[in-house]
Amino acid sequence: MKISKSTVILLVFVLMLSIFVANVADLINVDNHVLDDTLHNTDMKKKWSQPKFYDIGASFDHLIWFLQISDIHISIFQDPFRITELKEFCNITVGTIKPSVVLASGDLTDAKAKDKMGSKQILEEWQYYKRILDDTEISKRTLWLDVRGNHDNFNVLTLESKNNYYSNYSIQGKKHPRSYMYNINIGSKLYTFIAIDACLKPGPRRPFNFVGMLDEHEIKSIHSLVNKSKNSNTDFIIWFGHYPTSCILSQTNIRNIIGKHKESMVYLCGHYHTLGGAVPNMYTLQQAGFLELELADWKDNRMYRLGVIDHGQFSFIDIKHKEWPVVLITNPKHALYMMPRKENIMSVIKSTHIRILAFSIALIKIVEVQLDDKLWFECEHIKGPLYVLKWNTTNYREGIHTIRVRVTDIDGRETTIFQPFALDGSRLSFRILPRLILMSNVSNIFQFLFGTVLVLLVIPLCILRFLHILCERKQIHRPRFRIKFFHSWLRKLWILSTVDRLFFPLVLYALYLTVGPWAVGEVIENQTGIIFAWGTFIGNSFLPGAFTYAYGFFQLFSFHLPLMLILANRVDKRLQNTTKPNNKPLSKICFILQYLPIILLIIMQTCMAYFFWLAYGTLATILCPLRTWSIFLAMMLWHQVNTMPHSCLRFGLFSGNQLHVIVHIGNMTSLDLRQQKLEQQRQLIAQKMKQKRQSGAGGMVQASNISSTQLTSHSTKWMNPHKELRGYDGPLQFNISQTNTDLNTFIENKDMEARINEVSTEGNFYQAMETADCADEESSPIDIHSPSESLPCPSPLRVAPSDGSSTFISRENNSSSPELEGNVEGNIEHFVLQPANKKMHYKCRITRDRKGMDRGLYPTYFLHLERDYGKKIFLLAGRKRKKSTTSNYLISTDPTDLSRAGESYIGKLRSNLLGTQFTVYDNGYSLMKDDKRDDRFNPRQELAAVIYDTNVLGFKGPRKMTVIIPGMTSDQKRVEICPRDESETLLERWKTKNMDNLIELHNKTPVWNDDTQSYVLNFHGRVTQASVKNFQVVHDSDVDYVVMQFGRVAEDVFTMDYRFPLCTLQAFAIALSSFDSKLACE
């Protein structure tokens, strides 16, 4: 079996994707990671596997609650309500909830200039922060633990710098300039809070301090804090900091440090601002067994967090400021946030009471509980915010259940919350995106993105240049691409890779960004630094690269990649103009379109350079190859591509089969005689077509002057005699240049023209014109025109039967005799099964009904025969069966009864698994299933088979279909095909080329129209929209005789016209096969 290149590429891509997915799944997986990740001692593992048991009842002991607030961003330029509402939080919220601790996890001030681009510490903002804490006397009411964020470290050289206002204006900064620890005794338990300060040292201006770092000294300090805590026999450790663990660089993974201590419960952080609201609940359970919870910012969202440790169970809830009452269920705990390594599930199973904390600015009136949507029960108030309700856990020990709590205060404010819980260890899963963000390493992600786009920019150009050298030496053949889009861009990039003046600057600039300095200037005020992709030097300090890779990725992706494509397109156009000069001056619109992309690119890069100047000043902007110099590079290369001599253009046209060198040093040689003749003939035909359109023949705008016969007969010559029609997904609009050798000359055929002129006066089929087929997300739609020419009268189609006699599909020899529009003759059941009258053609309309709960996936199709004055006659209805392994459409003469057992059931359409082969049956009994049934009991006939050529992603252009129908006898009756075994079926007989008494039809091949830049078929006004579903069925012996045609006229309305030898059921089933999805054809 021959395996194509595209198949190999697809398999390699699938393999690489599988490896990538497997690695991501392993990264975010929790259940399969055992304690070996963090523990090496067998005794310790045993202790970890048995968390401490607590007797959970109505006791107020073993209970602590605290608050967290993050990313406050106090600013003197932006949103003054941040300040006033922070004061409300300290006064009202803290005063009402009365937490033991308040954690302020970084970005206490905004530290950004009024233009939002510059960044430095602003004294007034720190003064506001300190004034709020002093005015509210927060230190007297609770323990306020604040820690620095990246904004609090903007432009700070050392901890001793004067502008390090954190040390003077925060509560903890004076005692603890970096990481620190606090122990708190409440009741019989000792709780430890450890703050992690991962701010860069020194702290550059934004944006290069997005990622934090812990050096060896800070890691040792954190180990020391943990050891002190364990020596104090702490029961629980709560970690907090500004940076998420995925955003902290360190030689020792901070997750391992946190996770290797069984007392560690949770790591609380901020910094990501929920990615602008894209990930509102950024929570995950780390592989080391602890929870990591990112809190939405105070800056824009005014969020804070209530955390509780109740009898060894950690619970939390994030709350919007000013929302009351605040309610948190601590037992049973939320099933999503269970920590099997930290919490003993038996404590919950053997608990006697449901426990709830409720807070409000007014007195709590009532607290009620509902389990699994049953009755509401009132809770008992124990002390402070604690309310309990006695319960029996035996009723809830299997599966996941729901608890709902409703709290009402005396002012009428009411809050209702609910959460799932499980007592059998059932687990819920965190969402994928939060897990990826919090469990990965953003530095590695940034490096991967930067490296990927760098490879895409450099490697293809180098490969193309290397292949060009091999081609010049005749060591390999010219590369080919079957996909038109790739074919075009491969040609452009190939040409670009051969022009030294463009190739080397593009490649060397991209490589320079990986090793050379990006900017030299004041990275910190009054401190000159040098920024590289892999790190930043500031004085004697070095900061490893992290966010720099993201910055470089954006530069390469938004500037360098578009620049390369713009230059490739322009050099290709330049070469085409060189080989076939056009003396006509460019119009203003063409001139603007030619220069618009490069102008927009330079403007965008200039804006980026301006923003960089706002952030780092004049010196850094001048000495900035990343931003400023790239502008001059783009201008220089654009000037080169427009003014360089012809001798620099080494390579010419890349067409499907060959590349031609047509330029000599100094002057271009003339085209060879053959190429000139082909070009002259092409221009002559194009001129004739234009004259015919302008002459008013047919009276239609954009109508094709070449009849369907002429287009069909010359389609293989017009495209390429050695190639099939090719396309890509979506409307086919190929910008084919005059120099593309795939468009070979159209040679006029006088005999064919004479035959074309024999047309009937009544036939009214249609031609199509291109519009996007929005409703059909499929490939290669066929466009339509609307000329007034009629359907040509056919010559007979002949199929040789097995006995040597002739099977005819013919009409009267008098071609001038017009066809009549068909009408229903006799009853519907008989009419839809009889072959069409030879002297008539039948115009039908199919309506697709997709309204209803399940009709989006299983629509109903109604077939009507069109009559004069807008009247129509119902013929058939069809609908896809719901519970079937393959597509199976039931067809009925009753639109209200689409069941197989119904009296109106007339036939069905069944497909294979891939949707590439269909068989049409009548309503008889299958002889293959019941051989004992008498043949007189209406044996099932196979009326047609439809085969679609495989065409994955539409790479081969429009659909190609084959229709097999039973042959016709001399008295115009259909040959009965009633197979008794698989070998007698239409599909098997077609595969084995046993075509006795069978007729093989094909869809008419659409042709490429150079004027409309689309595939077209002549449908004679019966279709108004382009679609991949549009087709005409013909016999190879006479492509003028259109047996059937089908196409779109509205989103859910299609026309279906057919002739002898098809019957209504056959035509309708063939149309239904076009509606069905095809895994291997789209």
From TrEMBL:
One of its GO terms (biological process) is protein localization to cilium. Residues 833-1077 form the Tubby C-terminal domain. Residues 803-818 have a biased composition (Polar residues). Keywords: Cytoplasm, Membrane, Nucleus, Signal, Transmembrane, Transmembrane helix. Residues 322-426 form the TMEM62 Ig-like domain. It comes from Apis cerana cerana (Oriental honeybee). This is Tubby-like protein. Pfam families: Ig_TMM62, TMEM62_C, Tub. Its main location: cytoplasm. Residues 448-580 form the TMEM62 C-terminal domain.
